[in-house]
Amino acid sequence: MAIHPDQRFIGGLLANDGPTVDEIYRKYAGTIRNFICKNGGSEDDAADIFQEALIDLYNQARYKDLQLSCPFEAFLLLVCKRKWYTIQKKKGLHRVTNSTEEVSLVGEDVFARAEQLAAEESRARLFLEQFARLADKCKEILTLSLTGEAQEKIAERLGVTYGYLRKKKSECMATLLSYIQAQKL
């Protein structure tokens, strides 16, 4: 799995590098604040969640050698969302704090989901790279077919018969799949 260039943020957290930590706050605190505030929280809640998430990332990097394979922002947002949803779920219960065991389990779940997101991003990137290799006509046919518009209307728009469109679409998909398969080997 390739390490994402945003790994530099993890390195900055580990090194307690002031400029990098400031950059993290500048770039990402607003996104987290907006999410928390739109989902029933306050700015103080958002600040707490953001800080806790950074501590979790630091600990995962320090003790479990966290290697990012997706953008830092996506991973951070995922961690913050999970933390917020856990808090929301527990509202109404007498116990307010999580045990260390529960935090660890939530953290593991978050990291597993982040790995899943990274794999999905990698597949999407592979698809787009191979899609770009197709002939322009194939790109046009496949793009129009993905809009959900009736195939008959697409054929009419392209000035071809319905039968030709279906055959050409099938050939284009076969070509695309062969490109993707060749890259996976």
Fold and architecture overview:
With 185 residues, the protein is mainly α. It folds into two domains: 7-122, no CATH class; 133-184. 78% of the residues lie in helices and 0% in strands. It has helices at residues 7-15, 18-38, 43-64, 72-90, 100-132, 136-145, 151-158, 162-184. 16% of the residues are buried.
How many domains, in number, for the residues?
2
Name the quaternary structure. Answer: single chain
User: How much helix, percentage-wise, in residues?
Assistant: over 70%
Q: Largest sheet at a glance?
A: none
By DSSP, the count of extended strands is 0
Topology of helices and strands:
Blueprint: H1 7-15, H2 18-38, H3 43-64, H4 72-90, H5 100-132, H6 136-145, H7 151-158, H8 162-184
Defining key terms:
single chain, 185 residues, mainly alpha, 2 domains
Short description:
The protein is mostly helical. It has helices at 7-15, 18-38, 43-64, 72-90, 100-132, 136-145, 151-158, 162-184. The protein is elongated, with a radius of gyration of 23 Å.
